[in-house]
User: Which sequence fits this backbone?
């Protein structure tokens, strides 16, 4: 029995998706999953931090909100194929250079803040769990 695992990328060409789906339909057993969207990542980070998504995309630069925004930026870069500009648009129409800064700060938080690392692990674990089901 052949098992194929396919990833359908966000924003992929519809013709390519149709070709992949046709190929998969001819297989005995398939597992197909799509990576999370930036909005789904933001929803999960909001849930894990007790914030609202509107707070994450809002203008506030306060500690917990900024850390959540950094987490969304880092996870979006890791889990999606979206550009920094596209990530910035979802995060309140922010410029790609703002996202670069958030990624740098997220790297710092990874080293200095165990709670930040745990947040990332929980969010990634949530999406990995969704893939298995």
Assistant:
């Amino acid at each position: 029995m052949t098992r194929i695992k396919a990833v359908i990328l966000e924003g992929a060409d519809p013709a390519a998706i149709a070709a992949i789906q046709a190929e998969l339909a001819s297989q005995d057993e398939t597992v197909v999953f799509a990576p999370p969207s930036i909005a789904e990542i933001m929803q999960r980070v909001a849930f894990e931090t007790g914030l609202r998504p509107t707070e994450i995309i809002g203008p506030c630069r306060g500690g917990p909100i900024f850390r959540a925004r950094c987490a969304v930026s880092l996870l979006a870069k890791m889990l999606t194929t979206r550009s920094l500009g596209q990530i910035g648009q979802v995060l309140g129409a922010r410029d790609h250079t703002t996202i670069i800064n958030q990624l740098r700060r997220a790297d710092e938080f990874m080293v200095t803040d165990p709670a930040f690392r745990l947040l990332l692990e929980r969010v990634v674990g949530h999406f990995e769990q969704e893939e298995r089901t």
